[in-house]
Known about the structure:
Elements: H1 8-14, H2 16-29, H3 36-53, H4 62-79, H5 83-106, H6 117-139, H7 154-172, H8 176-187, H9 192-199, H10 203-223
Helix pairs in contact: 1-3, 2-3, 2-4, 3-4, 5-6, 6-7, 6-10, 8-9, 9-10
Amino acid sequence: MTAARPTSRELIEEGQALVHSLATRIFRNIPFRADLDDLIAYGEVGLAEAANKFDPEQGTQFTSFAYYRIQGAIYDGLSKMSWTNRAAYRRARFHQMAGEVLEQDAGSKESFKDESLESGAQWFRNISEKLAVVYFASQVENVDEVFEDPAESAPSRIARNEVNDRLVKLVDELPNQARILIRTIYFDGHTLNEAALRMGISKSWASRIHAKILEQLARSLRKMGASD
């Protein structure tokens, strides 16, 4: 006898613990003030959407199916907050990923093979270009929205938007695995570790791909004149 298909209400009840868990984790890590109840409410929207779209015949557990929809709904809610809060959130994500890049570079023996002045200058240029890519990618939190700093001059905003547009196009042209990794980290707002788990690869492998792609994107932007 085939088991009865769970109702949307039953699925929503099943997902309550997941909503509270994800909302609490995100609440503890966002770099600005927010109300936990608001995050839970955003998560409930994602949970309801997941419950309506879930098909048990696909062989996937509901909590696995709902996880990223709930998380995405919470981040979508955060993105609709005031510009000041969104800007703080993007700055925090930049610092987080910049720290990953610097940590990886410090652990690379290649960085210390040659201590000549010329080698040092080349290293400085390379790391600066990679951090520039991280900065601009961190600004494109949601490629469907335009974030405007009221204190930013029009020429500066135009130049930044041009670089962001170029970067998005370059990311879209990457090989599938690299494109998914970069978009998951920078455009979807996940950490490197979360992106690796989502893709089913190790964090060390994701870190190597990330470093390689940053160098590639930096070279591409340089050729296009965006890093001058």
